[in-house]
Write a structure and sequence with these properties.
Blueprint: E1 2-4, E2 7-13, E3 22-27, E4 30-36, H1 50-53, E5 61-63, E6 83-87, H2 88-100, E7 110-113, E8 119-121, E9 124-130, E10 139-145, E11 148-152, H3 163-173, E12 180-183, H4 200-212, E13 218-221, H5 227-240, E14 243-246, H6 248-256, E15 271-274, H7 279-284, E16 299-300, H8 302-307, E17 311-314, H9 317-324, E18 334-337, H10 344-348, H11 355-360, E19 364-367, H12 376-386, E20 390-393, E21 408-409, E22 415-416
Parallel strand pairs: 1-22, 4-5, 5-6, 6-7, 11-12, 12-20, 13-17, 13-18, 14-15, 14-17, 15-16, 18-19, 20-21
Antiparallel strand pairs: 1-2, 2-3, 3-4, 8-9, 9-10, 10-11
Length: 417
């Protein structure tokens, strides 16, 4: 535990590891959580909630920064009396994930907040700020309590389609004295680093180049909730006269988000949905076949793909097996992996019958990806701008990197009056 004046801060998850953020802050008998994340799978990281659950019994409020499970996956451990807060679209995306994965309904009271609208929760005043991240509707938090100002970056970046939000935030926060900065540092680890610096705009150019190389089909493996990436691919399809074909899960996501700049089924020519042939495939998605009328006339089958070979299809695990039994993916077609290379081995197990074709070169393999997290030089600029008094690294395996700022790096047991 760390104490600043009379405010107690305890990191229950996310320290010296990537993901699993759980930050407990206590003051004057009240407790709040910033995120309630499940650890990412990996060596030495097992999602054992036992040590965490015992410390959550008296938590009054939980604020969730965004919809990635390493920031909300332990929600079921919260006491029934705890009140949850998140952005509206974050709430929607979490509920969708829980529905698809058959997790139980959340019984706690769950309110939504708006960016830059202050929440007064007992002794705590908390202001959420919309930021740039690969998760849609991601927020950072400014927490004021007991005469102490804490700023939590959540998962932040400065190179996505909403980069202006993060850049402007640094200028705004610098006007407030920050006693403690809780900051991510995902890309500081060589294992997590996404390689050369790329922006979503850079990726758009790479997708255009790939789609322009021939008129054969292209398969893209990406997260169905990465709306920035979907917009990037959609824009590349428009520039190359390609037909974008969504998997049902991504179509489900789009049907539940209502923002003018997000491509929508029925509103944009050239966006379709590939429908599974078997009801068991729907059930594997957590959606029974009678619940998908909202896809309407945009639905395609494999005969449609055969007739229109200029398609770009978003990949899901069942698609690899299905494509193997249909003559819709000729030799020389492209398979594009658009996720972190950290997950490549795990995700390649989903390729099914496509795997030998990718490995033999029968399908052209590309990696086109930009990180959902800040690059080191952007973190330097951000921290130099806001000038915090102390720093507590989280969501990183390289906390020592932050010593370059000449600020006190806090550790368990530190006390600051």
């Amino acid at each position: 535990m760390i104490q600043i004046k009379h405010v107690e801060i305890e990191i229950l998850g996310g320290q010296n590891q990537i993901g699993g953020n759980i930050i407990l802050i206590g003051y004057a008998g009240q407790q709040i959580l910033l995120d309630i994340g499940m650890p990412l799978e990996g060596e030495g990281l097992t999602p054992d909630p036992g040590p965490v659950a015992e410390k959550l019994k008296s938590v009054d409020y939980c604020l969730i920064s965004h919809s990635h499970q390493d920031h909300w996956g332990y929600m079921d451990l919260l006491p029934k009396s705890c009140v949850i807060y998140s952005g509206l679209d974050t709430q929607t995306l979490i509920r969708m994930t829980r529905f698809v994965t058959r997790r139980p309904f959340i019984g706690q009271t769950w309110h939504t907040f708006q960016s830059e609208k202050q929440l007064d929760l007992g002794e705590f005043s908390i202001t959420p700020y919309l930021i740039d991240h690969s998760a849609f509707d991601a927020h950072a938090f400014l927490v004021r309590v007991g005469g102490v100002n804490l700023f939590y970056t959540g998962d932040i970046r400065f190179h996505g389609r909403k980069k202006v939000l993060s850049l402007k935030l640094a200028q705004r926060i610098r006007q407030t004295r920050i006693d403690l900065l809780l900051t991510e540092g995902t890309n500081l680890s060589p294992l997590q680093s996404s390689g050369p610096r790329k922006s979503e705009s850079d990726l758009e150019d790479e997708f255009v180049k790939c789609f322009s190389a021939n008129q054969l089909p292209a398969i893209v493996q990406m997260s169905g909730q990465n709306i920035d990436r979907l917009v990037t691919i959609f824009r590349a399809c428009l520039k190359t006269n390609r037909m974008l074909v969504l998997d049902p899960y991504t179509a489900f996501v789009l049907s539940r988000l209502h923002h003018g700049k997000i491509p929508k089924l029925g509103d944009h020519w050239g966006i379709q949905v590939l429908m599974p042939e078997k009801e068991k495939q729907w059930e594997s998605l957590g959606v029974v076949s009678t619940k998908v009328e909202w896809m309407g006339t945009e639905a395609l089958d494999y005969e449609d793909l055969q007739a229109h070979q200029n398609y770009v299809l978003l990949f899901r695990y069942w698609i690899g097996q299905a494509l193997a039994t249909h003559d819709v993916l000729p030799s020389g077609s492209s398979f594009i992996y658009s996720l972190s290379s950290y997950y490549l081995d795990r995700m390649s197990h989903q390729w099914g019958e496509l795997a030998p074709r990718i490995q033999s070169g029968d399908l052209k393999f590309y990696q086109i990806h930009a990180s959902g997290h800040a690059y080191p030089d952007d973190l330097v600029h951000f921290i130099d701008t806001i000038q915090p008094d102390t720093i507590l690294p989280i969501h990183t395996t390289d906390a020592e990197w932050f010593q370059r700022f000449g600020k006190k790096i806090l550790h368990d047991g530190d006390t600051i009056e």
